[in-house]
Amino acid sequence: MLFRSYSVTAVGTPGVPANLIGPSGTTNTPRVARSRWDIVTRTYVQADFNQFFRAGGTHDLKIGIGTQKNVNNVLQDYPTGGYINIFWNRAFSSSVPGVPANQRGTYGYYEFHEFGTGGSTGANINNIYFQDNWRIIPRLTLNLGLRLESERVPSFQRDVKEYAFDFGWGKKIAPRIGASFDVFGTGKLKLYGSWGRYYDWVKYELARGTFGGDYWRVRYRALDTFDVFSLNSKNLPGRDLWNPAVPDSNRNRRVPGFNTIDPDIKPMASQLFNAGFEYEIAPQTVLRAGYVRNSLIRTIEDLGVLVDGNEEYFYANPGSGIASTTPPSGATKPFPTPKAVRNYNAMEMQLTKRFGSWFGSASYVYSQLRGNYSGLAASEEVRTGADAAGVFGLDQQSAGVIARPGGNANRAWDIDELLWDARGGLDPQGPLPTDRPHVFKLYGSKSFKWGDRQGTDIGAFWYGGSGTPLSTLVNTINGTQIFVNGRGDLGRTAFLTQTDLVLGHEISVSEGKRLRFEFNAQNLFNQKTSRSKWTQLNRARTSAEINLAPVDLSKGYDFRSMINATSEGSKAFSPLFGMDDWFNPGFSGRFLVKFIF
Predict the structure, then answer these.
(1) Angle value at C-alpha 557, between 552 and 563, nearest 5 degrees
(2) Which among 119, 58, 86, 54 has a CA at the least distance from the CA of 230?
(3) Backbone phi, then psi, for 570, in 5-degree steps?
(4) Which of 517, 483, 523 is nearest to 500 (CA)?
(5) Strand 481-483 to strand 438-450: parallel, antiparallel, or no bridges (unpaired)?
(6) Helix count (H) and strand count (E) of the chain?
(7) 121 contacts 72 by C-beta, under 8 angstroms
(8) pLDDT tier at 381 (50, 70, 90 boundaries)?
(9) Among 97-106, 431-440, 478-487, which is the least confidently predicted range?
(10) How does pLDDT run across 273-321, given as a tens digit for each residue?
């Protein structure tokens, strides 16, 4: 039987059987897709050459060349290929040019959705690297390196276009330099520093979603029968409402974007700088201090525009090339597209001590993570399930996650309204969702011997970190959530602490054979600290969402008045706003028995 889901608003439609009358959203079968297979294979070949020689000091030179082949073979669909939505006593209308408006059958209309992901594709990433560990004098060592890569991201319809992205050797040149200096020549005080440029790979999820892997075709038909349970992929009676002149016409909601890539697009890149020192205060006691700066150079993202009421996307480096200007989706004039900004600065101090059978360390980190781009993992897009929206799904896994999985197609630049705050400020920047300015860590372990055949070890870890920033979000009719007051206007979550413990005991059974018992306790004191609050000011449903199309975003707007003006009025404000809705997992323990031989 075909999987079906139908909306039943049959009240007032003459002759509808009683068993078909129900509230909108009634379903006869839960809409659950299946993953028939989703296989990823990786083949990796690497050859390395190492040569030690003297020239102005000593050199340890390494040269390598390699390639890896990634292949993804996937088929995800509904049990019989799709699902059906039925609209009783309603006419079908579309804003797409050429599609007649207000069409219906005797009893309304229905849709057949053919939805899924399918295909197989693969491509290579090649690399060449050079690295020289150059010891100029006994106390000074330089580490010089250069890595080059070529990357091709395939499409899932290679008969149409072979590759979605093609980055040659000249586009991914990554230099690196580092130095360490033994100040006294005794190993007591060491200074170090390094700088490097790094390139990321384009994720295959983008190739699947935009370049022929995902499909979503909708067929619209007039509803002239009450026998809705007979409708299936091979039985779609009624007049074609989309394009009667074309046999089996359908609306393609996942048109492959083979021509939607900036021809001058550049790969994702970041640069990392760090410097610090290590000082031996006393025998087996070391103080380390360091500074780290990780800054994003550019990313690849999808940028959206509204065409005939539908979102269409193209892929570029935000703020560069064809993405230098953002076209309007409403009353706002075109404006310069903000570039992706993600800067991490951190200073760390760590003290470690080893004395006989025990070891201890303590560290403190002061950091800032600022910008407008939360990264590939999109930590600004969170679904805790509090609004019944569910969580984000994961490929090849049955469980979901509350934060959007990594990819190059997040919400950040999807429409112009996301790039302004309610005060008319372009590109609201501030603390990003994973920013924790103060982090403390304590670790200690101790070993005990019980004769020659038994031993016990105990270790404890304590973590304490600042809360993460909270920002007011307002839902719009485009399915977006706007930072109306910028980032971080609601303060932070509570200070987060957690204690973990591990206990182990080993018994020597015979020569070369041991039996180990281990207990690992996570969050020993069951501290269920809130790690998030509900920050959506209005409900995420059409009757409560605001419409920013008539608004000139550069002049700002009164979002509270706009929420009050929705059809729900004051009831559009979410009662969850400001409430804790996601907590640190409570106590969990694992017991392990291991035979070592």
Answers:
(1) 120
(2) 86
(3) -65, -20
(4) 523
(5) unpaired
(6) 2, 29
(7) yes
(8) confident
(9) 97-106
(10) 999 999 999 988 999 999 999 999 999 998 876 555 555 678 899 999 9
Among the listed ranges 177-181, 219-223, 382-386, 510-514, which one has the minimum average pLDDT value?
382-386
Place of tokens 């690196």: 176
**How large is the average pLDDT for residues 512-520?**
92
- The pLDDT-based confidence of 400 (bands split at 50, 70, 90) is low
HEC readout, 340-377? CCEEEEEEEEEEEEEECCEEEEEEEEEEEEEECCCCCC
Give the containing element (helix H, strand E) for 210.
helix 204-210
Q: How far apart, in whole angstroms, are the C-alpha atoms of residue 437 and residue 432?
A: 11
User: pLDDT value at position 2?
Assistant: 40
CA distance 44 to 3: 41
Average pLDDT over residues 121-150: 94
* Core vs surface per residue 125-156: b (16+ CB within 10 A) or e: bebebebebbbeeeeebbbbbebbbbbbbbbb
pLDDT at site 3 = 39
Say which residues have a Cβ less than 8 Å from residue 246's Cβ, sequence separation at least 6: none
Q: Are 65 and 107 in contact (CB under 8 A)?
A: no
The DSSP 8-state label assigned to residue 468 in this structure reads: P
C-alpha separations of 2 from 10, 29, 230 in Å: 22, 10, 9
Taking a C-beta distance cutoff of 8 angstroms, is the pair 154, 74 a contact?
Answer: no
Of 22, 8, 82, 71, the residue nearest 43 (C-alpha): 71
Please tell me the total number of residues recorded for the chain in this structure: 597
Q: Distance between CA 140 and CA 182 in Å, rounded?
A: 7
Alpha-carbon 187 to chain mean position: 43
CA–CA dist 309, 304 (Å, integer):
12
What are the structure tokens assigned to 231, written together? Answer: 């409708």
And the tokens for 499? 């204690």
Asked whether 298 and 344 are in contact (CB, 8 A), the reply is no
